[in-house]
Amino acid sequence: MNAGAQIAGPRPRHPFTIGACVDRGGIAGLEVLLRSLVSAHSAETRLELHVLHNHLPSRTIDRLSEIVHGSCASRVTWTSFEAERYFKGRVVFGLMSYARIFLPEIVTEGRVLYLDTDLVVNNSIEACGEIDLTECIAAVQEKTFGRSNCKTFFSRVGANLDSPYFNAGVLVIDCEKWTSERTRFQLIEAAERVGWDLPSGDQTLLNHHFQGRFDRLSGDWNCLAYAGASVSDFHETTKIVHFIGRPKPWECGGWVNRQYGLFERLGTNRQLRPGTPEMRCWPDSIRRVVRYGPSYIKCAARHAKRWFV
Question: Is the whole model's pTM more than 0.90, yes or no?
């Protein structure tokens, strides 16, 4: 593992594309991400974005594109990705999350800065082009295999529990290495071998595949803000804030998230809240509350304890 994926003096800039994967359930989060990207960069900044989507209506794509095109010189490319073709019957939830393993083969040139759709960009990410990337990927180490929620899985497959575990919400990927090493095929083969029922989905799969072979980014690139936590590691120089757990602060009932105040702070004068009609789809909101009910209850209980104890 290389622990030095940092900027050290002047370096040749590497072209990079910001990549994301989204289905209908992630539209609101993608809107928040796009609004924050625009807000964190000047109107002259040119960013290349590539979004893989699963059956998004053209009107939604047009409205989301306007967030970027109407505010800066950046460009968004949309590619329809049939997630069911590859993952239906294998993956129960989060089909489009697995789509990230196809991104480096679609972008092909330079590197991809992959971003989940539950992030807020707080500062410029142009420095991605200066990162010294020696491995296939770079990420922020969260903990070790033995301290992750995937510990039982890693024990079952005989992995070293002291191996560093990364959060896959922010990844810098060398497209050429990813493709030449046939990483996507190896990941799918590994999933067929160990089973697709993985504790943290493709994040578990990526960690299992790389097992420490990744360059470490500083925590500023992926500040983890847990829904039930009282404190995060956020500071003014943080580049990206990653809202972990449900509900997200911008979702129905998002006020019970312990990081709701942080989201409001980040959104001050930045218009981060989703605003298009598709984002206010009550049936989707109700289904989300039902699906993630236990998480909502836990967050609300923590609020109640703070208020009444």
Answer: no
